[in-house]
Structure formats: C-alpha cells, structure tokens
Amino acid sequence: MDAALAAALAGPRGANPLVGAVILSPEGERLATGYHRGAGTAHAEADAILEARRQGIDTSGTTMVVTLEPCNHVGRTGPCAQAIIEAGIAKVIYAVDDPHDPAAGGARTLREAGVEVRSGLALAESLDLNREWFDAVASKRPFVTLHIAQTLDSRIAAADGSSQWISSPESLADNHGLRRLIDAILVGTGTVLIDDPRLTARTPDGELSERQPLRAVMGLRDVPEDAAVRAADGRFVHLPTRDPVEALSRLFDEGVRHVMVEGGSSILSTFLAAELVDELIIYLAPTLLGSGTPALNDLGITTLADAQHWSWDEAGGGAVQTLGNDLRLHLRSTRTAASTTKNSIPRREAAEYVTGGH
Ligand SMILES: NC(=O)c1ccc[n+]([C@@H]2O[C@H](COP(=O)([O-])OP(=O)(O)OC[C@H]3O[C@@H](n4cnc5c(N)ncnc54)[C@H](OP(=O)(O)O)[C@@H]3O)[C@@H](O)[C@H]2O)c1
Predict the structure, then answer these.
(1) pLDDT, tens only, 44-61
(2) What is the DSSP annotation of 216-227?
(3) Which atom of ligand 1 is nearest to 188's Cα?
C-alpha cells in the first residue's frame, strides 16, 4: 500500500482523486504498478493491469492493492471492477470506499464475481492523500484550483494595468496544459473588462487545443457582447453573482467537477477568504514592480493566529518546479485534515492476507 500511495502522487489533482495500484504475486512480490493520470485517462487499476501485460505477466491468481475502492461505472473509461475480474485477479485490498455515488459498489461487484476483497488498509493515509477531493465530493461542488501569476512582490499587474505577460513562456505553456485538463476556468468581470482575455487552452504555437474548458465569468456587471471570452463555440457562461458558493453550485450543475480560478485579485481573495480553494498554483516571476495590483486583497485576517496555513504539495510533479525563469509553487489546503482511522486493517494482518494467511 505504501508503494500504491507513492505511485498515486505522480498524478495531477482535480476532478478525479489521486489513485495508485500495485499487483502482487501470490508470494507477495511486486509485479506491476499503476496510477491515475487525471480525468479521461486510464484508472490506476487498469494502468497496473496494462503495465503487467506490457511485461508479459499473467495476472491470474494475483493480488491487487489499491488506494481507493475500484470503480463500478462507465465514465470516460470502463469500470475497473470488470477489468480486475477479466484479468483473473484473485484478491483485492483497497484503502477507502469510493464516496462518489455513480462509481461506488465496485467491492460488491468483485465479491459477486468470487474475488476476495478487504478494505481499510492505510485508511488514514489514503483519506489524507485526497482529503480536498473527498471534501469537494461530499459538498457537491467542483474541486477548486487557484492560479496566480505574480511578481516576487506579489503583484499581478503593473500600476498602468499591464499584466501580459508576467510569467515566462514555460509557465504559460504549463498553465495551458492545466486548461486542457480542467472543466472550467473562472475570472471576475474586472479581468474581462480590463484584459479581454480569451481563456482558451492553446498549444505553444497558439493553436486551440482539442479539449476546451468552459469559460466562466463571475460578477454583476454585463459581459460585453464583443468580449473575447464569449467566442462562438458556446463554451461560455456568465454567473451574475458575487457569492463564490453560488458560483460553484451553478458550475457543478453545469457538470463542472474541476474549476481553475484565474483572478483577478477580487475573485482570488473571495475564494481564499471563503476557504473554498483546494489547490494553489503560483507562478513566481523573478520580477519586482513595487506598485500595481496586489495578488490578494483583504482576507479578513487581522492577527497572525488567524493566518491561513498551506502545505507544500508533492503531487503531479512536485511542490517546487523551475519553469524557464519562474518558480512554480504547488500547495494544498490544510483545512480538511483527515482524522478517521476507524476500521483500519493492521498492516501485518494485511501482509498475511496477501500470502494466503487469511
Ligand atoms: N497575473 C494574473 O494571474 C492575473 C489574472 C487575472 C487578472 N489579473 C489582473 O487583475 C486585474 C483585475 O483585478 P480585479 O480585481 O478587478 O478583477 P476580477 O477579480 O477579475 O474582477 C473583479 C470584479 O468581479 C466582480 N465580483 C464578483 N464577485 C465578487 C466578490 N465576491 N467580491 C468582489 N468583486 C466580485 C466585481 O464586479 P461586479 O460589479 O461586476 O460584480 C468586481 O469588480 C487586472 O489588472 C488583470 O490584469 C491578473
């Protein structure tokens, strides 16, 4: 399970949880490892089975150890429970039940097909791995990534309003890679009226990517008819509200499960103050402006004891990366620390189970 947890961290956060899977021989030897690379790609279980096939390994009679209950539904990929049954895997040990209604029930399907199933191994670690995602699923809201491209002194625009481009081309390319993964991108009316951004996902040579996020603008003022963000593809929505909870609820109803909030300062601060941000990505340019628009406004914090604390996030490429001349900082919220260890399988007992002790 430690290896499955480590593998899971290679994936990106977002609409889907981080999941890792390991296939073990009946003797407990590690045969293949897989992880989930984000919405629309193979799940960790299917990835591990594929890896075993690539190596010519016969998976019949093996054990799979996976950080989340194998799914039972056909989403953008097929059901993992079925893939496990077809691969002839004899035992499955997973950590956490899948809380996501359409996907739940994989354990029952496996048992009905004669696969031995146990759950609860490394329960606390696996809950912690995806604590923000569990929170988003339970609250029926999209997973929220907040993106800031800023100078060393936390400015997102100069005093004359110019803000393109604070970041290096490498950071921009990274941001457009994220835009291809997310379901929606959200800015305030202020950014639309000042910058008139397109908010599309583009390749480094400026071509439109195949997958485009929904472009959402939040605020009471109208979005001009000729605003670039409207484009002609129908992937635009105006959310006439200043309430971030309402904005997220509207987006959830539109089918959005991962939203990236891109600014400006009013919108960034609103989501942070409401503690609705799961993941923070900051592109830090080695530039000073001294004046101009600060990244954040008042968060309602007046004393250090009330400061918001974030932790460095090693998932999806690491907590600190160098992108051209910039640093990319990746952080996760600490507000939803997992607490439950109820029903955990003791590690020793689990090891005996793999090798037939149970
Ligand atoms: N470097 C970057 O990453 C980046 C990214 C984006 C923007 N920017 C820069 O940010 C600057 C724009 O900042 P901004 O603060 O004006 O833009 P903004 O946050 O995009 O929009 C602010 C507007 O959003 C509406 N709004 C919706 N909910 C709100 C709430 N809860 N609280 C306050 N306002 C709310 C208000 O307009 P209504 O009256 O319509 O409700 C408000 O005037 C521009 O200079 C832009 O270049 C930089």
Answers:
(1) 999 999 999 999 999 999
(2) EEESSSPPPTT-
(3) 20
Distance CA 299, CA 272 (A): 7
Residues 161 and 43 in one domain: no
Which candidate, 69, 158, 81, places its Cα nearest to that of 113? 81
**Same structural domain for residues 3 and 122?**
yes
Distance from the CA of 173 to the center of ligand 1, in angstroms?
A: 23
14 shares its domain with 123: yes
Q: Same domain, yes or no, for 150 and 269?
A: yes
Domain assignment of residue 323, yes or no = no
Q: What is the rounded distance in angstroms from the CA atom of residue 242 to the CA atom of residue 190?
A: 12
* 153-201 confidence digits (pLDDT tens): 999 999 998 888 899 999 999 999 999 999 999 999 999 999 999 999 9
CA distance 126 to 354: 19
CB atoms within 10 A of CB 238: 18
Tell me how far the alpha carbon of residue 243 lies from the centroid of ligand 1, in angstroms: 13
Alpha helix segments (H runs only) across the chain: 2-8, 44-54, 80-86, 106-112, 123-129, 131-138, 169-181, 189-195, 244-253, 265-273, 347-354
Is residue 5 within 6 Å of ligand 1 at its C-beta?
no
d(C-alpha 249, C-alpha 256), whole Å: 9
pLDDT, residue 209, reads: 92
Q: Which residues pair with 148 in a beta bridge?
A: 282
Cα angle, residue 357 at apex, residues 354 and 358 outer, rounded to 5°: 90
| pLDDT reading at 340 higher than 50 | no
